[in-house]
Amino acid sequence: MKSLKTVSNKQISIVCLMVFFLSPTRMFAQERISIGVHFDPLISWFGSDIGAVKNDGARPGINAGLTFNIPFSPNYSFSTGLNLINAAGRLVCKDDTQLELVNTETVLANEPVIYKIQYVALPMGLKLETNQIGYLTFFSDVGLDPKVRISGKADIPSLEIEGEKATSELKLFNLSYHIMAGIEYSLGGNTSAVLGIGFENNFLDVTKDNGTQPVDKVTHRLVSMRLGINF
Predict the structure, then answer these.
(1) Which of 63, 133, 206, 221 is the least buried, fewest Cβ under 10 Å from its Cβ?
(2) Helix/strand/coil (H/E/C) assignment for every residue in 138-196
(3) pLDDT, tens digit, for every residue of 57-97?
Protein backbone atom coordinates (compact mmCIF):
# COMPACT_ATOMS: atom_id res chain seq x y z
CA MET A 1 0.00 0.00 0.00
CA LYS A 2 2.86 2.36 0.78
CA SER A 3 4.33 1.74 -2.69
CA LEU A 4 1.00 2.38 -4.38
CA LYS A 5 0.55 5.60 -2.42
CA THR A 6 4.03 6.76 -3.44
CA VAL A 7 3.33 6.04 -7.11
CA SER A 8 -0.02 7.82 -6.89
CA ASN A 9 1.55 10.96 -5.40
CA LYS A 10 4.18 11.00 -8.13
CA GLN A 11 1.53 10.65 -10.84
CA ILE A 12 -0.50 13.50 -9.35
CA SER A 13 2.61 15.70 -9.22
CA ILE A 14 3.45 14.97 -12.86
CA VAL A 15 -0.13 15.70 -13.98
CA CYS A 16 -0.14 18.99 -12.04
CA LEU A 17 3.13 20.06 -13.63
CA MET A 18 1.85 19.20 -17.11
CA VAL A 19 -1.30 21.24 -16.55
CA PHE A 20 0.73 24.17 -15.20
CA PHE A 21 3.12 24.30 -18.15
CA LEU A 22 0.78 23.30 -20.96
CA SER A 23 -2.17 25.56 -20.05
CA PRO A 24 -0.34 28.86 -20.84
CA THR A 25 1.11 27.26 -23.97
CA ARG A 26 -2.35 26.25 -25.11
CA MET A 27 -3.72 29.73 -24.37
CA PHE A 28 -0.99 31.50 -26.34
CA ALA A 29 -1.18 28.96 -29.16
CA GLN A 30 -4.63 30.33 -29.92
CA GLU A 31 -3.14 33.80 -30.34
CA ARG A 32 -0.36 34.94 -32.66
CA ILE A 33 2.19 37.72 -32.76
CA SER A 34 1.13 40.34 -35.30
CA ILE A 35 3.82 42.11 -37.33
CA GLY A 36 3.06 45.29 -39.22
CA VAL A 37 4.56 48.08 -41.26
CA HIS A 38 3.38 51.68 -41.22
CA PHE A 39 4.00 54.98 -42.97
CA ASP A 40 2.40 57.83 -41.03
CA PRO A 41 2.14 61.42 -42.29
CA LEU A 42 2.32 63.81 -39.35
CA ILE A 43 2.39 67.42 -38.28
CA SER A 44 4.48 68.56 -35.33
CA TRP A 45 5.08 71.71 -33.35
CA PHE A 46 6.97 72.95 -30.29
CA GLY A 47 5.72 74.13 -26.93
CA SER A 48 7.63 76.29 -24.45
CA ASP A 49 7.25 76.93 -20.73
CA ILE A 50 8.35 80.61 -20.89
CA GLY A 51 6.93 83.62 -22.71
CA ALA A 52 10.31 84.66 -24.16
CA VAL A 53 10.35 81.58 -26.44
CA LYS A 54 7.25 80.68 -28.42
CA ASN A 55 6.01 78.21 -30.97
CA ASP A 56 5.72 79.72 -34.47
CA GLY A 57 3.73 77.11 -36.33
CA ALA A 58 3.50 73.42 -37.22
CA ARG A 59 5.55 71.52 -39.80
CA PRO A 60 4.88 68.31 -41.78
CA GLY A 61 6.83 65.11 -41.26
CA ILE A 62 6.80 61.31 -41.46
CA ASN A 63 6.90 58.41 -39.01
CA ALA A 64 7.75 55.07 -40.65
CA GLY A 65 8.57 51.74 -39.09
CA LEU A 66 7.62 48.29 -37.84
CA THR A 67 5.09 47.20 -35.21
CA PHE A 68 4.94 44.02 -33.13
CA ASN A 69 1.81 43.11 -31.15
CA ILE A 70 2.35 40.31 -28.61
CA PRO A 71 -1.02 39.06 -27.27
CA PHE A 72 -1.56 37.95 -23.69
CA SER A 73 -5.36 37.58 -24.05
CA PRO A 74 -7.78 37.66 -27.01
CA ASN A 75 -8.32 41.44 -26.74
CA TYR A 76 -5.10 42.70 -25.15
CA SER A 77 -1.53 42.86 -26.46
CA PHE A 78 1.84 44.30 -25.59
CA SER A 79 2.80 46.60 -28.47
CA THR A 80 6.31 47.53 -29.50
CA GLY A 81 8.28 48.19 -32.67
CA LEU A 82 10.89 50.43 -34.21
CA ASN A 83 10.12 53.88 -35.61
CA LEU A 84 12.11 56.36 -37.68
CA ILE A 85 10.57 59.78 -37.05
CA ASN A 86 11.23 62.89 -39.13
CA ALA A 87 9.62 65.87 -37.40
CA ALA A 88 10.14 69.62 -37.18
CA GLY A 89 8.92 72.84 -35.63
CA ARG A 90 9.39 76.62 -35.58
CA LEU A 91 10.53 78.72 -32.63
CA VAL A 92 10.85 82.47 -32.14
CA CYS A 93 12.55 84.33 -29.30
CA LYS A 94 11.58 87.84 -28.21
CA ASP A 95 15.27 88.80 -27.85
CA ASP A 96 18.31 88.44 -30.08
CA THR A 97 19.75 84.93 -29.63
CA GLN A 98 23.06 83.28 -30.44
CA LEU A 99 22.88 79.72 -31.76
CA GLU A 100 25.79 77.28 -31.79
CA LEU A 101 25.57 75.77 -35.26
CA VAL A 102 28.59 75.14 -37.52
CA ASN A 103 29.41 78.73 -36.64
CA THR A 104 27.91 80.97 -33.97
CA GLU A 105 24.90 82.66 -35.54
CA THR A 106 22.96 85.62 -34.14
CA VAL A 107 19.22 85.40 -34.77
CA LEU A 108 17.38 88.69 -34.39
CA ALA A 109 14.35 89.02 -32.12
CA ASN A 110 11.11 87.45 -33.44
CA GLU A 111 12.86 85.81 -36.39
CA PRO A 112 11.98 82.11 -36.69
CA VAL A 113 14.32 79.17 -36.34
CA ILE A 114 13.11 75.90 -37.90
CA TYR A 115 14.49 72.73 -36.34
CA LYS A 116 14.31 69.47 -38.32
CA ILE A 117 14.84 66.46 -36.07
CA GLN A 118 15.19 62.77 -36.85
CA TYR A 119 14.59 60.25 -34.05
CA VAL A 120 14.81 56.49 -33.70
CA ALA A 121 12.10 55.43 -31.23
CA LEU A 122 11.25 52.18 -29.47
CA PRO A 123 7.54 52.39 -28.56
CA MET A 124 6.25 50.24 -25.70
CA GLY A 125 2.54 50.16 -25.06
CA LEU A 126 -0.68 48.34 -24.30
CA LYS A 127 -3.03 47.65 -27.22
CA LEU A 128 -6.74 46.99 -26.64
CA GLU A 129 -8.95 45.76 -29.47
CA THR A 130 -12.55 44.70 -29.93
CA ASN A 131 -13.75 41.41 -31.33
CA GLN A 132 -14.01 41.53 -35.11
CA ILE A 133 -17.27 43.11 -36.28
CA GLY A 134 -17.79 42.15 -39.90
CA TYR A 135 -14.45 43.05 -41.47
CA LEU A 136 -13.58 45.67 -38.82
CA THR A 137 -11.70 45.60 -35.53
CA PHE A 138 -11.45 48.77 -33.43
CA PHE A 139 -8.32 49.36 -31.35
CA SER A 140 -6.56 51.78 -29.05
CA ASP A 141 -2.89 51.89 -28.04
CA VAL A 142 -1.32 53.78 -25.13
CA GLY A 143 2.33 53.75 -24.08
CA LEU A 144 5.78 55.30 -23.80
CA ASP A 145 8.39 55.97 -26.49
CA PRO A 146 12.09 56.19 -25.55
CA LYS A 147 13.90 57.85 -28.44
CA VAL A 148 17.35 58.87 -29.61
CA ARG A 149 18.07 61.84 -31.87
CA ILE A 150 20.15 60.71 -34.84
CA SER A 151 20.04 63.92 -36.85
CA GLY A 152 19.26 67.58 -36.28
CA LYS A 153 19.30 70.50 -38.72
CA ALA A 154 18.21 74.11 -38.63
CA ASP A 155 16.82 76.62 -41.12
CA ILE A 156 17.11 80.33 -40.35
CA PRO A 157 15.30 82.19 -43.17
CA SER A 158 16.47 85.66 -42.02
CA LEU A 159 20.12 84.58 -42.38
CA GLU A 160 19.51 82.49 -45.52
CA ILE A 161 20.66 79.38 -43.66
CA GLU A 162 19.08 76.10 -44.71
CA GLY A 163 19.76 72.56 -43.52
CA GLU A 164 22.71 73.47 -41.30
CA LYS A 165 23.83 70.91 -38.70
CA ALA A 166 22.27 71.79 -35.34
CA THR A 167 23.03 68.80 -33.08
CA SER A 168 24.86 71.10 -30.64
CA GLU A 169 21.52 72.84 -30.03
CA LEU A 170 19.44 69.66 -29.62
CA LYS A 171 19.47 67.08 -26.85
CA LEU A 172 20.33 63.48 -27.66
CA PHE A 173 17.64 61.58 -25.69
CA ASN A 174 13.95 62.08 -25.14
CA LEU A 175 10.89 60.27 -23.85
CA SER A 176 7.31 60.70 -24.95
CA TYR A 177 3.90 59.16 -24.39
CA HIS A 178 1.62 58.16 -27.25
CA ILE A 179 -2.13 57.69 -27.61
CA MET A 180 -3.60 56.12 -30.74
CA ALA A 181 -7.02 54.89 -31.84
CA GLY A 182 -8.18 53.41 -35.10
CA ILE A 183 -9.56 50.48 -37.08
CA GLU A 184 -8.18 47.39 -38.75
CA TYR A 185 -9.91 46.15 -41.91
CA SER A 186 -9.49 42.46 -42.64
CA LEU A 187 -8.08 41.70 -46.09
CA GLY A 188 -8.34 37.96 -45.62
CA GLY A 189 -6.40 35.50 -43.51
CA ASN A 190 -4.14 37.27 -41.02
CA THR A 191 -3.67 40.39 -43.16
CA SER A 192 -5.39 43.67 -42.32
CA ALA A 193 -5.16 47.32 -43.36
CA VAL A 194 -4.74 49.79 -40.50
CA LEU A 195 -6.08 53.33 -40.30
CA GLY A 196 -5.74 55.43 -37.17
CA ILE A 197 -4.95 58.77 -35.59
CA GLY A 198 -2.36 59.33 -32.89
CA PHE A 199 -0.96 61.99 -30.57
CA GLU A 200 2.53 62.08 -29.08
CA ASN A 201 4.09 64.49 -26.60
CA ASN A 202 7.73 64.55 -25.44
CA PHE A 203 8.26 64.78 -21.68
CA LEU A 204 11.84 66.09 -21.85
CA ASP A 205 13.42 69.29 -23.13
CA VAL A 206 14.26 69.14 -26.84
CA THR A 207 16.75 72.03 -26.96
CA LYS A 208 19.87 72.88 -25.00
CA ASP A 209 20.34 76.22 -23.22
CA ASN A 210 23.74 77.29 -24.54
CA GLY A 211 25.55 80.46 -23.50
CA THR A 212 23.20 83.38 -22.93
CA GLN A 213 20.15 81.63 -24.38
CA PRO A 214 17.01 81.79 -22.21
CA VAL A 215 16.54 78.88 -19.83
CA ASP A 216 13.42 77.10 -21.03
CA LYS A 217 11.83 73.73 -21.59
CA VAL A 218 10.83 73.12 -25.21
CA THR A 219 8.58 70.11 -25.81
CA HIS A 220 7.74 68.50 -29.14
CA ARG A 221 4.18 67.43 -29.99
CA LEU A 222 3.03 65.33 -32.93
CA VAL A 223 -0.30 64.39 -34.49
CA SER A 224 -0.08 61.54 -36.98
CA MET A 225 -2.30 59.53 -39.30
CA ARG A 226 -1.56 55.79 -39.07
CA LEU A 227 -1.44 54.08 -42.48
CA GLY A 228 -0.29 50.50 -42.19
CA ILE A 229 -0.66 46.81 -42.89
CA ASN A 230 -0.56 44.03 -40.29
CA PHE A 231 0.38 40.44 -41.08
Answers:
(1) 133
(2) EEEEEEEEEEEEEEEEEEEHHHCEEEEECHHHECCEEEEEEEEEEEEEEEECCEEEEEE
(3) 999 999 999 999 999 999 999 999 999 999 999 999 999 99
